[in-house]
Specification:
single chain; Rossmann fold; about 15% strand
Length: about 260
Amino acid sequence: MSYISKVSIDCPRKRPFPFDVPVVRYARGLDFSNPITFIIGDNGTGKSTLLETLAMRLQIPNMDGSSYGKRGFEAARALVEFLSIEWAIDRPRGFFLRAEDFGNLLNSIQNEDNRLSTFFEDIKGKVPDSIIKSMRDNSNYQIHAMHESYGQDLQGFSHGEAYFKIMNDKINKPGIYLLDEPEAALSPSKQLSLLYFIKEHLKNNMSQFIVATHSPILMAYPGAAIYQISDDTMKKVEFKETEHYSLTRSFLNNPEAYLRHLE
């Protein structure tokens, strides 16, 4: 069973962006009664826009804990008033995880660490090393926040391991979890690990996952609902009916046919 049973975007506007993306035209009465629903489609069809608008409407926490008034949610702010949700049961807690936010978090921490290294290098030899270390640690508020949230510095992990550390920390109770292209941070084997993680979570928690993805590995999750967006429709499809499956299968069966013009 799911928390959200149906989602619709009912918007009379057709332009400019984001009103002209396919998901705005075709997201009518989407059946979200499955515990896990994948939203798939080509770039520009509105997968991420739909998840961002849902996240804003639900006001669930996101990666950096900031509000949805921040830069990057302009499309969601324009669409949220046109989004309607039908609930099967009372709304729970949840979390919104965008792959781009994950990368931005690690990059911003590294950039701040580099800046501080340069700054404190100038006073090295003039101030005891122990004091410099204390000053540097206290100055990098992002690392302090990371320790507070996750118990350690995520930079000590590989990209995929850090991603799983966050998921284990944030996806540990019943709730609605929105994942936007999680495969961007994960190798194929880690994507399989994510499927297992979701399966184990759902065995012990009544949760709902709504995932935007390009990954055929992820969308192969047994029994999941899949909505495929194109320029002229948005419809529920079976895994083997998806363009992602057919193209990937065709390529792997005969890569030479696709690559011969590159030689």
